[in-house]
From TrEMBL:
InterPro entries: DNA_methylase_N6_adenine_CS, HemK-like, N4/N6-MTase_EcoPI_Mod-like, N5-glutamine_MTase, PrmC_N, RF_methyltr_PrmC, SAM-dependent_MTases_sf, Small_mtfrase_dom
Keyword Signal set for record: yes
GO CC term (a single one): mitochondrion
Organism expressing this protein natively: Vicugna pacos (Alpaca)
Alphabetized SUPFAM superfamilies for the sequence: S-adenosyl-L-methionine-dependent methyltransferases (SSF53335)
Release factor glutamine methyltransferase N-terminal domain: residues covered: 37-109
Annotated protein name in UniProt: peptide chain release factor N(5)-glutamine methyltransferase
Amino acid sequence: MLRALLSGLGWRGGIWGCTFTSWRPHLPLARLLNVTELVNHWTAVFEKRGIPEARESSEYIVAHVLGAKTFQSLRPELWTQPLTPWQLQYIQELSSYRLQRMPVQYILGEWDFQGLSLKMVPPVFIPRPETEELVEWVLEEVTQRSRVVRAQGGPLILEVGCGSGAISLSLLSKLPQSQVIAVDKGEAAICLANENAHRLQLQDRIRIIPLDVTLEDSWAHLLPWGPVDLIVSNPPYVFHRDMEQLAPEILSYEDPVALDGGEEGMDIISHILALAPRLLKDSGSIFLEVDPRHPELVGSWLQSRPDLFLDLVTVRRDFCGRPRFLHIQRSRPQRGCPADAWPVPQPPRVAG
């Protein structure tokens, strides 16, 4: 499935600045090809070389060179019009990256997430379709809260591990009165999130801070900006033993630090949970994207730390039916943090 594989690609004069591979597949140039013939040609080349999602990859590359987001959105006249020699060469150059298993998002240099066009730069983690579901769930919960308490203004949100800024910027765009504090320990991620915020003209409502949440007392650096209504994160959650099984697109191009969650995938998750009570408002919420094995592990971990006063209230499934998202809520007021109006925690349930 393309939704499960999508990673990202890069291109000439853009994010890579490296030379193209010397390998050049034979491209029949006795006549200038139209887009359908060209997509069929590169699909066959990709399939022969074992490239996943061969047709989708070729369609995205051809559409990009012709100025469209998708192959299906090409202007009608372009379907039969022969391509120019320059366009053919450019497509060949971009396709050579795909033959090296570079993700499509990096090749194109941008990708849409929740309707926003975000710049994509390696090795910053590429947002997946599952994470769009996490954003949709947060939006549902915030909307429901607003209906119940008739709250004025929007929530203050902390995102841990912001990467390209996909989650934070999506929430800001859908919640006009919200504000976000986004943290990441990667310099490349901080730079890219800042650039995407400015591209989308959302920079006035987001503070992007370099921060490693695994460092002792890291929470103290966030206190001046809090307390927050909710914490959202798609943390590194891949079990370390599973890292070598990831696709070449991921292993060769994306930052392993954004993926490897340690022995049980819990290294960063446990730090987020330990940090949360110091930063959340009363009954504040945490929304996490996790591995399907994590709901049980997180539930057990929270039971072993009653001092945190955090309850796992909901587990939600992704579009493939896997338990993928967690809603954790602070169950007891923390001294020094003003109360807010998030709903009282409910018994754990599995949704979706």
